[in-house]
Amino acid sequence: MPEPYAKLSLGLDIGSSYVKLVALSRRPDHWALKHVALSPLPEGSIVDGEVMDSGAVAESIEALFNQLALDERRVISGISGRAVIVKPIRIPTADPDELAQSVSWVAEQYLPSLDDVNLDYHVISTGGDFTEVLLVAAKRERLEGHLMILRLAGLEALAIDVDSFALGNCFEQAEPEAARGTVALVNVGASMTNVNVLAAGSPRFTRDISFGGYNYTEALARDLSLSVADAERAKRGELPDADAAAVDAVVGETTLELVDEISRTLTHFAGTHPELVPDAVVLSGGSSVLPRIKSSFEDTLAIPVRLLDPLARIDLGESGMDREDLATLAPHLAVGIGLAIRGDDPEIDR
Ligand SMILES: Nc1ncnc2c1ncn2[C@@H]1O[C@H](COP(=O)(O)OP(=O)(O)OP(=O)(O)O)[C@@H](O)[C@H]1O
Ligand SMILES: [Mg+2]
Fold first, then answer.
1. Low-confidence winner among 45-54, 80-89, 134-143, 314-323 (lowest mean pLDDT)
2. Which residues surround ligand 2, an ion (CB under 5 A)?
């Protein structure tokens, strides 16, 4: 008889600085981590969410699979940035069987052409005269580029999700009680910051801001006349002869730019949804560990801010690693874990 929970669910997060692979296994009331690995990408392989060097990205992915000696080659991966448009729309309530058709009619009003995109949607709420729907339009060209990389790496896509939705799934799994309220999830990566305002478990608004860890490195390189490699080390506190006060000042100013942009984003959202004021901002992403990023967010947004622990409720027993081993990796894993969790979705056909 096959082992009941042998099935692995692989989340593959292809970021612009690191590829992250998370292998989870479903247990009756929780998830177990089986494997996790991260592989750096050569600079310039992915710029602004767009793949510039498919071969280099595929090689990094293959390196991860070889490192973990995995037989399972079917993954759930995600797209973000300009590859995808997410828009809340209202559809006059009709027969549920006709919803997909109604969504594509309404989508035509918002999108220049339906020929260039793959449409999907999530129902947020029903009842009354309107159904609230989150329209998801993935640019076909970018989607095909993504699938091509997976093929090059010898993988098959079980599903392609949206990074900010995966972030929401990760949060719901990590903090199920808090996910019943309204929270602003902010994942600060290398070239991008994904924002997802989640209310009662549904993403209500998402935006990918083209700003992240690279902006800090660039600012340090420029203002302190450092090479990019040294600026990256200075940012991480790993450049012994750097002027710590000067590094601190540049990091602080750059965080203010980021917080300003997020503040504008949340104000814009509050204008259309005054009833959905976030109770908290929850930070994740490789750049969320920057010094004082949390207090800077708190000062500007006047909302409690905390860091997400994506592994909080995941059983690590079978991974061969403990919390301490995973501490530096954890901030990078929110999207990858959220993608792997999608493996549980009954819509995904194995
Ligand atoms: N100790 C550290 N201190 C500051 N920044 C760090 C540290 N460790 C990693 N980073 C930054 O984290 C970023 C990578 O985070 P992450 O893996 O979330 O991004 P990504 O998914 O590759 O990028 P994106 O989603 O933006 O395309 C890099 O900009 C890196 O410089
Ligand atoms: Mg990322």
1. 45-54
2. 15, 189
Same domain, yes or no: 279 and 211 = yes
Question: What is the tens place of the pLDDT at every residue in 132-187?
Answer: 899 999 999 999 999 999 999 999 999 999 999 999 999 999 999 999 999 999 99
Query: Ligand 1 mean position to 318 CA, how many Å?
Result: 27
In short, whether 190's Cβ falls inside 6 Å of ligand 1 is yes
Specify whether 316 is located in the same domain as 249. Answer: no
In short, whether 290's Cβ falls inside 6 Å of ligand 1 is: yes
pLDDT band at 75; cut points 50, 70, 90: very high
**Does 303 share its domain with 323?**
no
What is d(CA 58, CA 7) in angstroms, rounded to the nearest whole number?
24
DSSP H stretches of helix in the chain:
54-68, 99-110, 140-152, 163-174, 213-223, 228-235, 244-272, 293-301, 323-326, 334-341
Give the distance (Å) from ligand 2 centre to CA of residue 43: 15
CA of 249 to the centre of ligand 1 (A): 19
Place of tokens 């035509």: 108
**Using an 8 Å Cβ cutoff, are 288 and 331 in contact?**
yes
Does residue 105 sit in the same domain as residue 150? no
Strands 50-51 and 74-79: unpaired
pLDDT at 2 over 50: no
In this prediction, residue 216 carries a pLDDT of 98
Whether 298 and 157 map to the same domain: the answer is no
Run of H or E including 25: strand 18-26
| Closest to 65 in 3D by CA, of 90, 38, 92 | 38
Contacts of 106 (CB under 8 A, 6+ apart): 89, 91, 135
Q: Residues 89, 71: one domain? A: no
Domain count of the chain?
A: 3
Q: What value does the CA radius of gyration of the chain take, rounded to a whole number of Å?
A: 20
CATH number at residue 331: 3.30.420.40
- Containing structural domain, residue 100: 85-136
Instruction: Provide φ and ψ at 104, rounded to 5°.
Output: -70, -30
Q: Are 29 and 153 part of one and the same domain?
A: yes
